[in-house]
Design goal:
Blueprint lengths: L1 E6 L2 E4 L4 E9 L3 E10 L6 E7 L4 E3 L7 E6 L4 E6 L8 E11 L2 E6 L3 E6 L1
Parallel strand pairs: 2-11
Antiparallel strand pairs: 1-3, 3-8, 4-5, 4-9, 5-6, 7-8, 9-10, 9-11
């Protein structure tokens, strides 16, 4: 019912910045929460940031002050501005959302976008 497409990943030098975007499409009545997670090979997927419909944001402690999550409700799009990137933050970044559709409320995931931070 819902498709999430991420974009904006790529290769960046340590200390650099990237802006990720994730657009949701489908028969969506409402998207309560959108967020970003990341996963490196051999590691568990971890929460990066979430944002509610009203714009209340929460961040992992490791990214506070450097990352900013935002959303455009008209476009059903969530963004993640990443500043001061570290090599340890090289990972596949996944967009997710808890969306209300004709089937009720379900969690959806994007395909992921690779972020590589060089040292």
């Amino acid at each position: 019912q819902v498709q999430l497409v991420e974009s904006g990943g790529g290769l960046v030098q340590a200390g650099g910045s990237l802006r990720l975007s994730c657009a949701a499409s489908g028969s969506i009545f409402h998207i309560a929460v959108m967020g970003w997670y990341r996963q490196s090979p051999g590691k568990e997927r971890e929460l990066v940031a979430t944002i509610t419909f009203g714009g209340s944001a929460n961040y992992a402690d490791s990214v506070k002050g450097r990352f900013t999550i935002s959303r455009n409700n008209t476009k059903n799009t969530v963004y993640l501005e990443m500043n001061g990137l570290k090599p340890s933050e090289t990972a596949v970044y996944y967009c997710n959302t808890d969306a209300i559709t004709t089937r009720g409320t379900s969690r959806y995931w994007g395909q992921g976008t690779q972020v590589t931070v060089s040292s």
